[in-house]
Amino acid sequence: MEKLLIKKDIRRSLYSKVKELTPHSDIYFSDHLILVSGNCLHYAREFEKNVDVDPVLCEIAGLVHDIGYTEKYEEIEGDHIIRGVSLLENLLPKFGITGYYLEKIKDCVYTHDGNLNRSNCLIKGQPPLENIIVNDIDSICLFEWPIKSLIEFSNRLRPGRPIKEIITGIIEHTHKTFDYIYYEYFKELAKTKYEKFVRELEKSK
Q1: What is the spatial distance between Cα 20 and Cα 23, in angstroms, rounded to a whole number?
Q2: Residue 73 scores a pLDDT above 60
Q3: Helix ranges restricted to H, 48-146
Q4: How far apart are CA 116 and CA 182, in angstroms?
Q5: What is the mean pLDDT of residues 66-93?
Q6: 110-141: pLDDT as tens digits
C-alpha cells in the first residue's frame, strides 16, 4: 500500500477544522494536538529510514487522536476514544482520506491511551508502528504539562479535596501513563521527563 499523501492546502484545511472542533480549555486544547501530530511526523520520518512506517498517517492520527473530547468532564476516559472514532468516519472523507487510510487512522485513535493490544491491525500479535508512535508520543506529552494547570483542573472536577489528595491522584495517573508507553525507545526518551515531573508533583504537596 502506498503511503498517505496530502496536499498542503488540504492539510491546512484539516488542521483548521480540527482546531475548530477541539474543546478549548486548560486541558483539552488544540495546541496539544499540534504538538502530538508534529512529533508523530518527526519520529515516524526518523524511523522510516530503517523500517516501514507511514509518517503522514502518523501525523494525521496524532492530530485527531483527542477529537472526541467535549468541554464536559467524563468519568469514563475511554468515551472520548469511541466518540472520536465515530466522528472520523464522516470527517476525514471530506478531506480525501478514505478506505485503508481512514481505517488505519481510526485504529490509531482507537488504541491510544494504552489500548494498543486491541488494535484491529495486529501483526503477529504486535500493534502497528503507527499506532505505537501515536500512543507513545501522546503519553510523553503529559510529562510536559504545567503542574499548576493540572492541579486546578483536577480540583474543579472534584472540588473540596485537600491538595495532597489531588496531587496523589495526579501522580498515580502519571505512573499509569508512563506504563502506557510501549516502545523501549520512547520509554528511554521519556524517563527523565517522567521522573522530574513526579518529583515536581511531590514538592507541590
Answers
A1: 8
A2: no
A3: 55-64, 79-91, 99-111, 129-141
A4: 8
A5: 81
A6: 999 999 999 999 999 999 999 999 999 999 99
37 vs 31: CA distance, rounded Å:
10
- Helices and strands in the chain: count of H runs, count of E runs: 9, 0
Q: Which of 131, 124, 111, 139 is nearest to 54 (CA)?
A: 131
Decide if pLDDT at 28 tops 60.
Answer: no
Residue with cell 525507545: 185
List 97's β-bridge partners, or say none: none
Helix residue ranges, H only, the chain: 8-21, 30-47, 55-64, 79-91, 99-111, 129-141, 147-157, 163-180, 184-203
Q: What is the DSSP letter of 2?
A: P
Contact by Cβ (8 Å): 62, 40? yes
Q: Which residue has the cell 473540596?
A: 160
**pLDDT over 90 at 105, yes or no:** yes
Pick from 52, 46, 36, 41: which is nearest to 3 by CA?
52
* Portion of the chain with pLDDT greater than 90, in percent: 78
Query: Where do we find the cell 508512563?
Result: 178
